[in-house]
Amino acid sequence: MVIIIAEFFVVILKVLWAFVTAGSKWVVRPKEKSVAGQVCVITGAGSGLGRLFAKEFARRRAILVLWDINSQSNEETAEMVRKIYHELDTPTIKVDSVLPPQPQVYTYVCDVGKRESVYSTAEKVRREVGEVDILINNAGVVSGHPLLECPDELIERTMVVNCHAHFWTTKAFLPKMLELNHGHIVTVASSLGLFSTAGIEDYCASKFGAIGFHESLSHELKAAEKDGINMTLVCPYLVDTGMFKGCRIRKEIEPFLPPLKPEFCVKQAMRAILTDQPMICTPRIVYMVNFMKSILPFEAIVCMYRFLGADKCMYPFLAQRKEAMNNNEAKNGI
């Protein structure tokens, strides 16, 4: 009994120390680690946040491995990365200066919704590039249909791409990370994986699943004492990438909670990744909303949603998607 009490007090001290350590990072900004020369795989690199992540890692001289289902857009991202690499090597320097070798960028067409494609592409990466140091699970889709209007195939697609794919990419690259006790896995989720809204049940469920996967894996790595492998969970509020075009909260509140600029979102995420921060929510109010959801009665949450206009914020987006689909069907003579 005495031992248990002693251990309990030690735990309390460790918890308090964790608060002190976390608080100190708000005062003294942690030093960012170098990723130069490290192999970084980014899924969904052909557009949106994936493309911006690629450009940020390129500026830090990482070796980029870009995965996307769209070959053309993926090559466009690769060309942007090559230009960044070239710019890094063109500033005026002394004649006798020795430049580090220019990093390379590799592109692969991969449908992360198909595990055979993930595993075969991962094998190609190991053979052609080398072992992976950083994995950015970024690829994501949205069906744009409420539950009863959403075809089963689209529900399955959303779950597979947004959640199941994380299992497969991680299973492909984690074994070597465990062997070397070195690596970093990033899960690009969403605030909609922390608290949900109406009309996008499949998307919210997939992001909740991705966060659950991430947290469980984080605990597994800690239990295995693999402190050289870091995990970062990225949970942004609505990002202005066009994925949820038309989504609107209450107009009086919107100026205080506008959609995030993709560049800002990625820069915040990069700061978290490069300082080994376990989780980043953007903007910071997302932390508070998530905490309040945990302690407030459900009816209180509903009242808050209605006040903010968050209860039906996706309805304009869903209406736009439905209208676009009807127009496409009319053009095709369906």
Describe the structure.
The chain is 52% helix and 11% strand. By secondary structure, the chain is an alpha/beta fold. The chain has a seven-stranded parallel beta sheet with strand order 3-2-1-4-5-6-7, with helices on both faces. The longest helix is centred in the middle third of the chain and has 29 residues, at 152-180. Helix 2 (48-59) packs parallel to helix 3. The chain is globular and about 55 Å long. The chain is built from ten helices and seven strands. The protein has a single domain (32-89, 99-327), classed as 3-Layer(aba) Sandwich (Rossmann fold), CATH 3.40.50. The protein has helices at residues 2-27, 48-59, 71-88, 115-128, 152-180, 201-223, 262-274, 285-295, 298-308, 315-331; strands at residues 39-43, 63-68, 105-109, 134-137, 183-188, 229-236, 279-282. Pathway: Cofactor metabolism; retinol metabolism. Keywords: Endoplasmic reticulum, Membrane, Microsome, NADP, Oxidoreductase, Signal-anchor, Transmembrane, Transmembrane helix. This is NADP-retinol dehydrogenase. One of its GO terms (molecular function) is all-trans-retinol dehydrogenase (NADP+) activity. It catalyses: all-trans-retinol + NADP(+) = all-trans-retinal + NADPH + H(+).
